C-alpha cells in the first residue's frame, strides 16, 4: 500500500472541520498467539462543523468493512492509507473493521517470541502516526479524544492499557478485557500490550503502581524492584508538587517489553525496552540511565500527554522538556544528586557534535508533514533542547520557571498548545519579554563559541547570526605548588559579540562554570593547558565534567591533539570519586584513545588507559565499571591476569563476554569457549553478546554474519546494546578489512525495515565512525543529498560525517 504522510495543512484543515467525541476500539489479539493476525473494530464518534463537507480518516491496516452513519462505504473510497468520508452530518459515527499481519517489523506493533521459553509477547508503540496501522483514527496530535478499549486475548495473557480494566471476562479459550474511556488523549499515547507477563503491583501514596516483564526476566525485575518503586514514588511526588497538578490517575504501570529501541510515554502505561532490566547487577551509570528513562517518560504524563503540542514543529516541547525535567527531578528528588554533571559528561557531547555539523537545525523548525518530523528525533531536539531549557531556568530564575509551568498546566490541561502559549506563561511569571530570547535560542542553529579576552567575554556566533543572550558563571583558579585553588565565581548575563565582565582573578578561568548555558568554549592557552593538567583537582563534579566536555569540544574544533585529551582523561580516571563521572570518563577516555588517535598511537594510549584503570579496579564502588573498561582495552598479561582472576568462579557473564570480544579483536577468538558461555548464559538475548564477539574479529566471514543479522535477518534486538554492537563491528584497527563494508552501509540505508526507533538505532549503530576513510566520506556526503533516503538517515549521515571528518583531521595533529 502506498502511504501518504499527513501534511500540516491537511491536519489544520481537518481539525478546523471535525471534533472527535470518542473512540471505542475493539481489539482481537487471539490471532497472535500462534500467528501474525491483529484485528480491530474502530468506532469513531465525531462532529462536523460544516454538514455536507468531506474529509478523510487514517487507516493503513487492511479495511474489511466500513460504515458511516450506518451506510456502507465503497471500497473505492479507501486509498493511500486514507478512508474518504463525504456528505458528513453534524454528528457522525464511523465504524471500520480492519486487520493486519504486519506484526513482526515493529511498525506500530511487534509480536515477539522469547527464544528461551517460546512465550509470545505483543506491544504497541504509536508515535508519531502509527495508530493508523492498527485501527482507523484521525491520527494527528490535536484531535484529542477519550479512547475506550475492549481487548480479546488468549486466556493465559495479561493485557495492559492506559488504565485499570473495568472487567476481565472469560470467553471460550480467551478473555475479554474492558477498559473505561481515557481522558482526552492524542492518538499516539494510547497503548495495548499483552502476553504472559509477570506482574507486580505495589500501593504507595495513593497510586497503584504496576511493573511487568516477560517470564524469562523475572529475577532481574525482582532484583531491581525496590529501586524502581522508589524512583516512581519520588518522581510522581516531585512532579506533582512542582507542576501543581498531581498525576490524575490512580494506576501507573511500567511495562518492560522485548525489542523496543527506547521507551514510550503512553498515558498511565509506559513501555520500556527490557534491555533496561540489566542481566547482571547494574553499574551506577546503568542505574542512572534507567532512572532518567523512568523520570523522562513520567514527565511526559504532563508535558506531552496532559498538554500536547498542536503540530510536530513543536516536538521539542515534548522531548526536550521531558529530558530536562528528568535530570532536574533526579538531581532534586533522588539519590542521583550529581545528575547534571553526568548529563554533561555522558550526553551533551552528542548535541555539540550535531549542532556543529551540517545536520544542525533549529530546535523549533518548520515541519511540512509527519515524515519530516521524524528527522528531528535527534540530539538537538533532546539534548540541546533540554540544555536550552536549563539555560532558560538560569535566565529567568527557577522560581519563575516553576510558576510559569504551573500556570501552563492549569490553563491547558487536556488541550493542545503552541510554543507561544508556554512562553507567555514564562513572561507572566518572570516579568521579562522573552520574544528575542525565543528567536535567538529556538530559531537559530549552531552553538556560539565563547572565549574570555582580557576583561571581555567574546561570543562568536555561527555565520549570519548574532550571538545569543547567555546567563553563565565564570570561575577563577590559581595554581601554586601544584595545588589548584578557586579564587571566586561570578555570574554574568551577556549579549552581543563582546560584553565587559568582571572575571575572577586567577591563572585559569573556567567559562560556563556549572554548565548553565549551551555553548562551545575556547579557553586561552594558559587556561587550556592548566585545566587539562589539573582536571582531577576541581572540587565540583560539574566543573570536572566541564573540563572533559571542553576537551571534547576542542577536538571538534581541531584545536587539541587526541593524545593530549586522552592523557588528561587517563589522569582524571585515577582520581575520580563521583560515581556520576567514573563511567562517562572511562567511556570518553577509551573513545579518544581508540577512535580519535592515529593508528600508530592508539595501542600505546589504550595500554596507558588500561594501566590507569588498574589503579582503581580494587575500589569497591568502582570495581565493576573499571573491570568492564579494562576488558575493552586489555593490552598486557598484567591486564589479563586481573581480568581472569575477577571472572574466575563468578557469575559475571557480562565481563566474560567483554573479555571474549577483546580477545577476538586481538586475533585470539576461542569458538569453543564462546559456545560454552552462550549455552550457560540464561539471558534470552545472549546471542546478541555472541554477535558482539564475532563483530570484533578481524575476519570477513564473522563480519558477514553480523551484517546479515543487522540488514538481512533483522535479528538484532533493539536496545542500547545495538549501539555497542555497531561500535564493536567498526574497529578502527581493522579499517582495510572493513573498507568494502563502509560503502555497503550506504546501500543498506535504502532498504531498512521496521519502526522509527529500530531503524534509527540501526542507522546510528552501523555508521562506520571508527573505520570510514575519505572515500567513504565523499560517498556519504553525496548520499546525504539523496531524496530517496529518509530525512532521518540523511541527517545522521551529515552529523556523523562531520565527526568522522574531525577524527580524520585529528589523527594528523
Automatic annotation (TrEMBL):
The keyword Transmembrane helix does not apply. Pfam families: ERAP1_C, Peptidase_M1, Peptidase_M1_N. One of its GO terms (biological process) is proteolysis. Belongs to the peptidase M1 family. The gene is pepN. This is Aminopeptidase N. One of its GO terms (molecular function) is metalloaminopeptidase activity. Its EC number is 3.4.11.2. Residues 117-189 form the Aminopeptidase N-like N-terminal domain. InterPro entries: Aminopeptidase_N-like_N (IPR045357), Aminopeptidase_N-like_N_sf (IPR042097), ERAP1-like_C_dom (IPR024571), Pept_M1_aminopeptidase (IPR012778), Peptidase_M1 (IPR001930), Peptidase_M1_aminopeptidases (IPR050344), Peptidase_M1_dom (IPR014782), Peptidase_M4/M1_CTD_sf (IPR027268). Residues 232-441 form the Peptidase M1 membrane alanine aminopeptidase domain. Residues 508-794 form the ERAP1-like C-terminal domain. NCBIfam families: pepN_strep_liv (TIGR02412). Its cofactor is Zn(2+).
